[in-house]
Amino acid sequence: MAPIEVHLIAADGRSHTVRARVGRSLMRAAVDGRIDGIAADCGGCLNCATCHVVVDTAWAVKLPPPSSDEQAMLEMTAAPRQPTSRLSCQ
């Protein structure tokens, strides 16, 4: 399957486009694309919340609901949690 383009907007408003493989996490695409702000300290193991992102509402409604483990980790994000906050490793 061909890579897709993912458009990310940093907290400071800068826009980034990265290429990602279907089925891989957004966290992995951001780290591979060297996007600042996605630390991913745990490497995607769902135990650090350093890959916190806020998903545009139009896309957030297309995602499955966060698991109870993701919900718990979202309580520990460095930036304030938003209604469409998710962990990009998930």
Can you describe what's shown?
This protein is an alpha+beta fold. It is 20% helix and 20% strand. It has helices at 26-32, 57-60, 68-74, and strands at 4-9, 15-20, 52-54, 85-87. Strands 1-2 form a two-stranded antiparallel sheet. It has a two-stranded antiparallel sheet with strand order 3-4. Strand 1 (4-9) and strand 2 form a beta hairpin. The radius of gyration is 12 Å and the shape is globular.
Short structural summary:
The chain has about 90 residues and is α+β, with helices and mostly antiparallel strands. Helices cover about 20% and strands about 20% of the residues.
Number of helices: 3
Largest sheet, order of strands side by side? 1-2
Beta fraction: 15-25%
Backbone structural class: alpha+beta
Characterize the overall form.
globular
Radius of gyration (Å): 12 Å
Q: What's the helical proportion of residues?
A: 10-25%
Number of strands: 4
**Element order, helices and strands?**
EEHEHHE
**Poorly predicted spans:** none
- Average per-residue pLDDT, rounded, comes to 94
Sheet with the most strands, sense and barrel status: 2 strands, antiparallel
Q: How far is it from the N-terminal to the C-terminal residue, by CA?
A: 21 Å
Primary descriptors:
alpha+beta, two-stranded antiparallel sheet, 4 strands, single chain, globular, 20% helix
Give the topology:
Layout: E1 4-9, E2 15-20, H1 26-32, E3 52-54, H2 57-60, H3 68-74, E4 85-87
Antiparallel strand pairs: 1-2, 3-4
